Amino acid sequence: MNPADLLSAMKRTVEQLAAFNEMAKALTSTLELREVLSLVMQKVSDLLQPRNWSLILQDERSGKLYFEIAVGEGAEALKSLQLSPGEGIAGTVFSTGTARLVDDVGGDPTFAPRFDKASAFRTRSILAVPLIARGRVLGIIELVNGPQDPLFTQDDLTTLTAIADYAAIAIENAKNFWRVQELTITDEHTGCYNARHLRAQLEHEVKRSQRFHHPLSLVFLDLDRFKHVNDTHGHVVGSALLKEVGELLISCSRQLDLVFRYGGDEFSLMLVETAPEGALTIARRIRDAFREQHFLQSQGLDIRLTASLGVATFPDHAHSAMDLIRAADFAMYAAKARGRDGVCLAEPLPAGPRPEPGEP
Predict the structure, then answer these.
(1) Buried-state track 288-320, b at ≥16 Cβ within 10 A, e below 16
(2) Which residues contact 196 (CB under 8 A, 6 or more apart)?
(3) Which architecture, in CATH terms, is 3-185?
(4) Are 221 and 268 in contact (CB under 8 A)?
(5) DSSP assignment, residue 81?
(6) Any idea where the GGDEF domain is (predicted)?
């Protein structure tokens, strides 16, 4: 190696060590899972600069793998997809716990082309590394195509493995912290999060939305004529019905979404990184699910319900977390006023300057 190449290699090593040190400090400064994941992916971007990259985790309920974070060309299409352990190169890495560096996916029998079809992106090379904590695979970091030359190198594999080692411990710690926290933020009757957690989480997500310039949507839902159910069948049946409503909302939501019982027969969904169009799609899916659902059949009943839903998005319809709650709530009552069993979008804010991050 000539002196110029040696100097360049030494400089690159120093930069990587500084980045790892910075990442270690950042990851140990928070137990918020979303912040941990954002920090990890920022370092992946800074150090390796892939064309596309994603962080894939396992849904503890279904066992399926989902794209917790996806960045790059066609990434939005991936966020709604899932894969099974063992499916594709990423799924194989998850099942085996062994990293893969694939120079040409066309010659690899484990490559799953359906993800390219969904995202309209051409994958040529993949670098995938497992996230392992206490001997258990939590997920995968997957890079697709290098910044100029599509191929990745052994140095890239070494760097990504080091990032994954830091990330896995931080993710495991954040998840354990979250499990303890859930005991105090869950509505005991429905299993959904409670209103206090909605307000706290919304404040946090609005700040995050300002920082990263991502949209944040909120859906408010009110059951139509729920009082009639209580008057006809009693409050015990009404409580059981609310529990099934919570289960229905969770089943209609995506992995990243949060479902809350706001109070009485009102529920809400927080949709991170979701623009108005996407939020309306989810709200309409929920409306249709209510139309098709037969509640409490396990108790020998067949109760039919509809719901009125309001949708609002930050920063399109609100300047703050409380404004977003008011906008979604107002839109929900507008849906009721239009005849119930419908979805209404909040009115956009007037044109003009908007508050900068940190302003009230």
Answers:
(1) eebeeeebbeeeeeebebebbbbbbbbbbbbbb
(2) 185
(3) 2-Layer Sandwich (3.30)
(4) yes
(5) -
(6) 214-348
Q: How far apart are CA 180 and CA 244, in angstroms?
A: 24
| Residue ranges, the chain, pLDDT below 70 | 1, 4-21, 23-31, 351-360
Instruction: Give CATH superfamily name and number for 195-345.
Output: Reverse transcriptase/Diguanylate cyclase domain (3.30.70.270)
Q: Is 310 helix (H, G, I), strand (E, B) or coil?
A: strand
pLDDT at position 359 is 45
Collect all residues with Cβ–Cβ distance below 8 Å to 217 and sequence separation of at least 6.
Answer: 270, 271, 274, 275, 276, 278, 279, 311, 312, 313, 314
Look at residue 15 in the predicted model and tell me its pLDDT. Answer: 64
Structure-block tokens of residue 33: 């899972």
- Where are the chain's structural domains? 3-185, 195-345
pLDDT of res. 14: 59
Instruction: Check residue 40 and give its pLDDT.
Output: 79
Cα 93 from Cα 85, distance rounded (Å): 8
pLDDT of residue 302: 96
pTM passes above 0.70: no
Q: Do domains 3-185 and 195-345 have the same CATH topology?
A: no
